[in-house]
């Protein structure tokens, strides 16, 4: 049975590990969080992500550890890294968690046979090349394989990708990934194999394009709200043109969450470093802000004293409030003195109360 190590078995890494296990691999999970690792091994961990709990309890060839030495002991040749890459003040991503993993790998014995590191975390363009240089005498290749998955459907999205993006560090790593996805995917994805820099840019640019589409739809929708007309019918007709497509072209709240806003900002940072500008991405962010203000003024014009929000997470069925446009709108209304009731928010009430004590009513 082929072995694979996944370092960083959080939201994304755990799903990837479980999908790989279900596809016939022996998967070794490594994470710094001892209590979490214990729960995974005891199969007592409970995830809000669909399918995770079922896959975890059915798994036979997935075990988790905190000590990276297991890679040496188990002679694992494929090492997938999916640790956090948080945004920094300047909007670039920090690679410090990856660096910490890499330092630990470099403390192990230098492998006699070439091993393959595959970065699944979102990184700044150019990072995999930097890492290759850093590890050049250590017998590791560095590839990039980001995933296009959405919170709330991570397992299914991993099984049904439109495309597999591979920034190739070594042809053997690509062969491994192609075999893995051939077993894991229900869909028949296109494979896009390229150098790591191109793949790093592709990951960010895809999210930039999607947000540009959302901002376009919301700005046309705002115009129609002002002039009269039916924004849903208009956007649905535009999306029916197969050159455009209807996905991410609906009218609603602005985009938010832990991925879209930061990927936009990171690509802008990268462009700035190259002394370039990306006016479309700048406008996308601006439109998202203006749309929030438009929605706020629109609601104020309704002259109501009370507003009810069905959910204030950045999208339905998650527990994430990071960069939630809905929550920002609710805050703006409540700060104007309106009574704002948040429904379905018991699971996030504590976090909201910490940030905005006493501002909302809950149902
Ligand atoms: N969650 C998602 O939907 C998506 C996430 N990504 C990217 O994937 C990466 C990871 O994201 P998430 O899974 O959401 O993060 P997460 O925070 O849920 O999981 C990261 C895990 O890494 C562990 N970790 C941290 N340092 C470690 C170390 N030195 N050794 C071993 N484990 C360590 C943490 O304990 C945690 O369990 C980020 O770069 C993110 O941008 C990309 C696409 C989608
Ligand atoms: O790079 C990432 O980390 C991931 O970011 C997003 O995943 P996610 O943020 O979980 O979820 P989406 O469902 O795409 O929603 C993102 C934001 O866009 C908004 N959105 C989405 C769709 C839409 O039609 N309109 C719209 O405003 C959502 O409400 C939300 O605020 C992408 O969808 C994934 O492909 C990508 O891998």
TrEMBL record:
InterPro entries: 6-PGluconate_DH-like_C_sf, NAD(P)-bd_dom_sf, UDP-Glc/GDP-Man, UDP-Glc/GDP-Man_DH_dimer, UDP-Glc/GDP-Man_DH_N, UDPglc_DH_bac. SUPFAM superfamilies: 6-phosphogluconate dehydrogenase C-terminal domain-like, NAD(P)-binding Rossmann-fold domains. Residues 198-289 form the UDP-glucose/GDP-mannose dehydrogenase dimerisation domain. It holds the Pfam family UDPG_MGDP_dh_N. It comes from the Bacteria. Pathway: Nucleotide-sugar biosynthesis; UDP-alpha-D-glucuronate biosynthesis; UDP-alpha-D-glucuronate from UDP-alpha-D-glucose: step 1/1. Keywords: NAD, Oxidoreductase. Its EC number is 1.1.1.22. It catalyses: UDP-alpha-D-glucose + 2 NAD(+) + H2O = UDP-alpha-D-glucuronate + 2 NADH + 3 H(+). The keyword Oxidoreductase applies. Residues 3-174 form the UDP-glucose/GDP-mannose dehydrogenase N-terminal domain. Belongs to the UDP-glucose/GDP-mannose dehydrogenase family. This is UDP-glucose 6-dehydrogenase. It comes from Wandonia haliotis.
């Amino acid at each position: 049975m082929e072995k694979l190590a996944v370092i960083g078995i959080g939201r994304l890494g755990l799903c990837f590990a479980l999908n790989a296990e279900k596809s016939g691999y022996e998967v070794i999970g490594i994470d710094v969080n001892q209590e979490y690792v214990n729960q995974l091994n005891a199969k007592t961990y409970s995830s809000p992500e669909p399918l995770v709990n079922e896959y975890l309890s059915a798994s036979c060839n997935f075990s988790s550890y905190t000590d990276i030495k297991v890679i040496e002991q188990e002679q694992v040749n494929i090492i997938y890294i999916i640790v956090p890459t948080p945004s920094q003040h300047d909007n670039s991503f920090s690679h410090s968690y990856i660096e910490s993993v890499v330092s630990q790998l470099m403390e192990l014995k230098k492998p006699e046979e070439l091993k393959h590191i595959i970065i699944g975390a979102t990184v700044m363009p150019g990072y995999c090349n930097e890492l290759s240089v850093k590890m050049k005498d250590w017998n590791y290749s560095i590839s990039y394989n980001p995933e296009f998955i959405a919170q709330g459907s991570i397992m299914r999205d991993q099984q049904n990708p439109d495309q597999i993006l591979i920034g190739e560090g070594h042809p053997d790593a690509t062969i491994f990934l192609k075999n893995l996805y051939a077993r894991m995917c229900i869909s028949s994805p296109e494979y896009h194999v390229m150098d790591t820099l191109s793949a790093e840019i592709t990951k960010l640019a895809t999210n930039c394009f999607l947000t540009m589409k959302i901002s376009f739809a919301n700005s046309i929708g705002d115009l129609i709200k002002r002039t009269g007309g039916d924004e849903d019918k208009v956007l649905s007709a535009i999306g029916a043109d197969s050159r455009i497509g209807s996905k991410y072209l609906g009218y609603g709240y602005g985009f938010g969450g832990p991925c879209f806003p930061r990927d936009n900002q990171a690509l802008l940072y990268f462009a700035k470093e190259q002394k370039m500008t990306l006016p479309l991405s700048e406008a996308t962010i601006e439109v998202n802000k203006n749309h929030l203000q438009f929605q706020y003024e629109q609601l104020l014009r309704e002259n109501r004293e009370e507003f009810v929000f069905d959910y204030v997470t950045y999208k339905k069925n998650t527990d994430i409030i990071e960069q939630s446009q809905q929550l920002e709108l609710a805050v703006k209304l409540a700060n104007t003195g309106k009574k704002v009731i948040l429904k379905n928010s018991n699971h996030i009430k504590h976090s909201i109360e910490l940030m905005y004590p006493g501002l909302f009513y809950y149902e």
